[in-house]
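dumping this here so i dont lose it
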């Protein structure tokens, strides 16, 4: 029973790490990455759809994203959606292909991004600690209902704490890597 709790805890903590990685992918760090456009939705025949479902996204060089819509009438719609997105990018087009130059980040913007990265990292740590708390509560309930011995309970709590420590360390490493990437671009 404790092993089930530990396994469940491990998968929940892993999901918290996955969410952190996904958030980091969405950050504009001065380097072209199509993932910064993941949250942009465009109207396509009355339905809001992700940008990558109505066009082909490519990165020909480190500072440029090209968007080639499958239908030429989508060019102004996509351009408008990018301008409204709040990414601070200025698209240009030739009627067929939209070019999205990625400007270099200012020092001030880099510092803001680093603060945001640290905040996301701290939020992930809080989520991991909440998973630990819930797992420990579940273990204590199992012990009180006499389904688990005290030795098994202590062993389970140690495993849960080790998982917590490992995942917190992993979050710190990911935050440090992202901070370095932002400051050295």
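and the seq i came up w/
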């Amino acid at each position: 029973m404790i092993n089930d709790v530990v396994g469940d805890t491990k998968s929940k903590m892993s999901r918290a790490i996955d969410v952190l990685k996904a958030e980091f992918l969405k950050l504009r760090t001065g380097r072209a990455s199509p993932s910064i456009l993941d949250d942009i939705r465009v109207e396509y025949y009355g339905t809001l759809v992700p940008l990558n479902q109505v066009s082909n996204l490519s990165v020909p060089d480190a500072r440029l994203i090209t968007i080639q819509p499958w239908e030429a009438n989508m060019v102004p719609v996509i351009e408008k959606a990018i301008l409204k997105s709040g990414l601070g990018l200025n698209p240009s087009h030739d009627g067929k292909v939209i070019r999205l130059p990625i400007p270099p980040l200012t020092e001030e913007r880099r510092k803001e991004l680093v603060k945001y990265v640290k905040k996301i990292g701290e939020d992930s740590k809080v989520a991991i600690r909440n998973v630990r708390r819930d797992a420990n509560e579940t273990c204590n309930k199992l012990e009180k209902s006499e389904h688990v011995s005290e030795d098994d309970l202590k062993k389970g709590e140690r495993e849960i704490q080790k998982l917590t420590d490992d995942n917190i360390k992993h979050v710190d490493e990911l935050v440090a890597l992202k901070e370095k990437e932002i400051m050295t671009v």
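The mean pLDDT is 88.
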